[in-house]
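Predict the 3D structure for this chain.
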Amino acid sequence: METWPLLGAAEAFSRVRPLLAARPLLVISDFDGTLARLESDPWGARILPGARRALRRMAVLPDVHVALLSGRTAGDLVGRVRVGGALYLGDHGTERGRLPRGARAERLAIEVAPLPPHLTALAEGVAQAVEAAFPEPWLVVERKLPAVTFHYRTAPDLDLAAEGIGAVVEAADPAGELTRFPGRRALELRPPGAPAKADSVRALLDEHRPAAAIMLGDDRHDARAFALLRAARAAGELDACTIGVRSLAATPEEIGPYADLLLASPAETAGLLGRIERTLR
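Done. Predicted structure below.
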């Protein structure tokens, strides 16, 4: 098995620092496992205070653009991050909203990408079928209709839980209209044609035309966005750095081949963002 070196904030910063003089600068970050530690209960995730402070100060700097890109809904994401001046891209970019500086998170105006309406009813039907089959405290159903994610992080037998949930999903959506995305202790269903994180990063590059970009993330969805960003760098479009974050033992195997750097934990993310913010100011 290949291994990748895990870095602390100070060493990672020494590698990132040359990008910080470029303008416009784009900073993109995932939430779970990146700005917040992964929790057994997904609703218990909280942004690390140091990461929030750094992002708040970065988001109001001239020619510095901060985007939060998560699988969570935009409304859930903004309520956990609460950084004014940042762009919130929920459900991998299906939902989009910018929170003005000083505005309440609850007032985020959200635009939603148009998707076939019948898929919302299908996703809800699948969610109800899984809930009926597994009335267990370890099952957490995250509705992002027409997407839905089934979390089973605390199931006593992870393989059995994954197999059982998968079987119910196949029975409830036999035509496979919803695309399956198996993850770490979760199964996500997404409508075909819905934006992926890589699509959202491409849109951000087209919108802001940054001279440099920094992206942080911890899973396979982030890895695909990393690959796009690295391809843009190779094409001479911008300078960029992709930074993976170790949140579980399996993280490097999922994201390591696509990350320029690997941070040892979300705590190191907060430390790195603090160093970046102080240098930018």
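The mean pLDDT is 94.
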